[in-house]
Amino acid sequence: MPNKSLGKRSLATLLDYLVVYAFTYFYILAFGERAPNGTHVIHNSALLIPTAFWFIFIVLTEQYLGGTVGHQLFGLRVITADKHSLWLGRTLARRACDAIEISWCFGLIAYIIAQTSEKGQRLGDMVARTTVVAKKDLNVTIQFEFEQTGA
């Protein structure tokens, strides 16, 4: 059964990546070299700045706030399949799939996969064993990994 918050998830992702793409575009315009064909390019260590921005804006906000800025604005939260908070390994696994299903096609592949998957998950959710839920529908207490008992 597809997740009923798929429309909000899609808009949240578009918003998040619009910010990332805009930052990258203006960074390259401001600090890139003008190529002979009129475009602007960045090289070597200058590539780290847009990558660091993506890591902070997407990965760390999802890790520490339970969702990206877009998720927060649309009242969504990323949780593990067993209803726990994320840990960095899962967040990185989830976001590593962005290159396949979001970045180059504006999320079309992620949308199709989430629309057709049994649990409404995109590839990144399946790999990381996570799901995105509306905060208002979340009626369980999130338990952090370090709070779990061994029994």
TrEMBL record:
Its main location: membrane. It is found in: Cell membrane. The chain crosses the membrane at residues 12-30, 42-60. It holds the Pfam family RDD. It is a multi-pass membrane protein. Keywords: Cell membrane, Membrane, Transmembrane, Transmembrane helix. Residues 5-128 form the RDD domain. GO terms for cellular component: plasma membrane. InterPro entries: Pra-immunoreactive, RDD. It comes from the Bacteria. This is Putative RDD family membrane protein YckC. It comes from Dinghuibacter silviterrae.
